[in-house]
Amino acid sequence: MFRLRHHLDVDELLANARRSDVTYTSAEAGRSGSVPRAYRHDHHSITLPARPDAFARAVDGLTQWQAHRAIGATVTPDLPPERGATVIVTLDVGPLAVIAPCRIVDVTDEDDEYGFTYGTLPGHPEEGEEAFVVRRAGARVTFEVTAFSRPTTALARLGGPVTRAVQQRATRGYLRGLADWVADAG
């Protein structure tokens, strides 16, 4: 959904989104590996900077939405991801705001893996899921972004390659953003 920034009432959008169900039939499909065929599938990862606290720092960054902030997105409410929570991800594009209502459908918090998955809600320009996962294997820490999606709005469908390029750019931004967050630890 697109709105003029000065007409944006995030609290109202959040209240409406909380009453909605996800816009696709396979909630948690990304985590289970049973991704629907009719969707685009994406998987991107990066090895995070080597440092003794890389995993803890990366988890801290994900819980504070640093990967999203790195691309200029705002997440409301600004709380750590919690299963069942509803969030509104907003990205300003000139005088417009791209609004992406999402529901956290999964959270993993283990010794060597932390992550969350959100699914799209009505008003999101796409439908599907996106997962953000940090994993530790020995001294190596990786950050992965995995998604399946397809456009739902006429504008997103008409945008075709442009819409896809914006998605890819956002994903690269998430990866770089969390890597920078880990590297910049004091």
Give a short overview.
By secondary structure, the protein is an alpha+beta fold.
Your description of this structure?
This protein has 186 residues and is α+β, with helices and mostly antiparallel strands. It has one domain: START domain (Alpha-D-Glucose-1,6-Bisphosphate, Chain A, domain 4, 2-Layer Sandwich). The chain is 31% helix and 38% strand. It has helices at residues 10-18, 29-32, 54-63, 66-69, 154-183; strands spanning 2-4, 40-47, 73-76, 86-93, 96-110, 113-120, 126-137, 140-151. Strands 1, 2, 3, 4, 5, 6, 7 and 8 form an eight-stranded antiparallel beta sheet that branches. A hairpin with a 2-residue loop joins strand 7 (126-137) and strand 8 (140-151). Helix 3 (54-63) packs antiparallel against helix 5 (154-183). The model has no long low-confidence stretch (mean pLDDT 87).
Biggest beta sheet summary = 8 strands, antiparallel
The share of residues in extended strands comes to: 35-45%
Helix amount, in percent? Answer: 25-40%
The total count of strands amounts to 8
Give Rg in angstroms: 16 Å
CATH superfamily: START domain
Low-confidence stretches: none
Structural topology:
Blueprint: E1 2-4, H1 10-18, H2 29-32, E2 40-47, H3 54-63, H4 66-69, E3 73-76, E4 86-93, E5 96-110, E6 113-120, E7 126-137, E8 140-151, H5 154-183
Helix pairs in contact: 3-5
From the structure above, extract its key features.
38% strand, 5 helices, Alpha-D-Glucose-1,6-Bisphosphate, Chain A, domain 4, eight-stranded antiparallel β-sheet, single chain, 186 residues, alpha+beta
